[in-house]
Design goal:
By secondary structure, the chain is an alpha/beta fold. It has one domain (102-438): Glycosidases (TIM Barrel). Helices cover 31% and strands 12% of the residues. The chain is globular and about 50 Å long.
Length: 441
């Protein structure tokens, strides 16, 4: 009897030990903590800039590297494993509006990266914050569709990001495989091909290129494949590219092509259409609204023979000044009036090219409106002052022409528009650069 009783007591002790103490139920209003995921870094393919993904972001598809891609990662940063390499994080998003105005210069870093480094520093030293750079489509996706060479674009974007300079990238000059009247600069035969290129570009540089300009001066036949400029066709192209860019990088600004300021209505390969007529026709083709086509209207604004303050009506009345409203800096006000007419008052204008020439060559088509280098300097400063006082808040970026390509000579028309002399390695400022550097911003 004693042995069975002891055995029973032993079994009961074991059962109580296995059950343990009861677990308290959580209070009904007790918060349950959820750990916030940290950024995840994905190892970059050779030469490919990847962005960290956080809990609030959706990672964009990454392109497959090709033989033509850059074979180095320019700026490695700390990574969670020895194998992982990531490039510098993109700058913080700045939104789809600009300060009024913002200050930019056009530079030519494509063939010589060291020139880009110098010129970006020159932009910074002058107190400017934007660089306009041309990306030739045929130089990036030249061999065939889907075959990219990102080596130069990687360098340019990396340098600008490192220097804190915003980029506006103009894309035109189609590759041979895209047709469009190659080698003449013209839109591709299949507009989707350009949209696909923009998608690849905006995906690769998401958060690192602030603005894209879709084509250049489509109101000139020589920029439209030698064909008659066609606003309705450009509207179709612009819409496709806008959608492609926004799908890849919603924070990027899409800027319509800067129109050449002209009153000409001519035919043939050198033909043109007036910029104000072209813009009005573009609005008609867009159904009266630019929504889904561009965020900012692009414009060009050569000063010709007039100071920046001169009224376009005065210019139109005087043949010696050009005899047309387009022949002055304030031509952009006519384009703004068209935007207002169609209710586009909330959108800004980016002046993507503007300046004055000092070209005195007897055979130059520009010598009739040449000014001295000192006058050019004064006009640039007054142009920014006029815009700040009279065009705010609708004027955004004002990007002047140019910091010289080091290889230009006096036989190049661009030489005479520039604010620096050509040369390498030192920067050779003209009066305009110095005046702009000293100008209050």
């Amino acid at each position: 009897m004693r042995k069975p009783l002891l055995a029973l007591l032993l079994v009961m002790s074991l059962l109580l030990a296995a059950c343990g103490s009861p677990t308290p139920a959580p209070a009904g209003d007790e918060a349950v903590a959820t750990r916030t995921p940290k950024p995840t870094f994905t190892p970059a393919a050779a030469g490919q800039a990847k962005q960290p993904t956080t809990a609030s972001q959706t990672r964009e598809p990454e392109s497959t590297p090709t033989e033509q891609e850059s074979v180095e990662t320019l700026v490695p940063t700390l990574t969670p494993t020895p194998e992982a390499t990531a490039t510098t994080a993109p700058p913080a998003a700045k939104g789809l509006r600009m300060n009024s105005p913002e200050y930019g210069m056009q530079i030519f870093p494509w063939w010589r990266p060291e020139v880009g480094s110098r010129d970006l520093q020159a932009i910074q030293a002058a107190g400017f914050t934007w660089a306009k750079v041309n990306f030739g489509w045929r130089d990036i996706e030249g061999p065939s569709k889907g075959v990219f060479d990102w080596s130069r674009t990687d360098q340019i974007v990396q340098m600008a990001n490192a220097d804190g300079v915003d980029l506006v990238i103009r894309v035109d000059h189609q590759p041979a495989w895209a047709g469009g009247g190659f080698p003449t600069n013209g839109p591709p035969t299949n507009y989707q091909d350009l949209a696909d290129f923009f998608a690849a570009l905006a995906t690769r540089y998401k958060g690192r290129i602030r603005a894209y300009e879709v084509w250049n001066e489509p109101n000139l036949a020589r920029e439209w494949g030698g064909q008659t400029p066609d606003p309705a066709a450009y509207a179709r192209l612009l819409k496709l590219c806008y959608s492609a860019i926004k799908a890849a990088d919603p924070s990027a600004m899409v800027i319509s092509a800067g129109l050449s300021p002209t009153g000409s209505w001519t035919a043939g390969p050198e033909g043109a259409r007036p910029d104000d007529w072209y813009l009005e026709s573009l609005y008609i083709a867009m159904g009266g609204s630019s929504a889904g086509y561009y965020d900012v209207l692009g414009a060009h604004g050569a000063g010709f023979a007039s100071p920046p303050e001169r009224d376009p009506a005065e210019v139109a009345a005087n043949p010696a000044l050009g005899g047309h409203r387009s022949m002055c800096f304030r031509r952009v006000e006519d384009l703004r009036a068209i935007m207002v007419k169609y209710g586009d008052t909330d959108k800004q204008i980016a002046l993507l090219e503007f300046g004055w020439t000092s070209d005195p060559r007897p055979n130059s088509p520009y010598n009739w409106h040449a000014v001295s280098e000192q006058t050019k300097a004064e006009y640039f400063v007054r142009a920014y002052q006029y815009a700040k006082q009279n065009w705010s808040p609708w004027i955004g970026l004002m990007s002047l022409i140019y910091i010289s390509d080091p290889d230009w000579t006096q036989e190049h028309e661009q030489y005479w528009w520039a604010i620096t002399d050509p040369g390498w390695p030192e920067l050779k400022p003209r009066a305009a650069y110095t005046a702009l550097k000293n100008m209050p911003k």
